[in-house]
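Revision sheet: structure tokens.
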Amino acid sequence: MKRLIGFGIGFLYLGIAFGALQRANNGWDTGYSDVGFWWTVIAALLTIAALGALGGTWIHTQKTES
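Predicted:
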């Protein structure tokens, strides 16, 4: 159950990061480089959080040999 919740949160963060990246792309395309830049920063931070959630979930839900 913990693994399912952890992976769910990780994939949710990836989805939000993808949305932020789309907003950044819209900002760059319309000539608002400041909007594009900051949404790119937000997308990068969300991607790091998603990878941390996925990796941490994988590491901390492994069966131990006890």
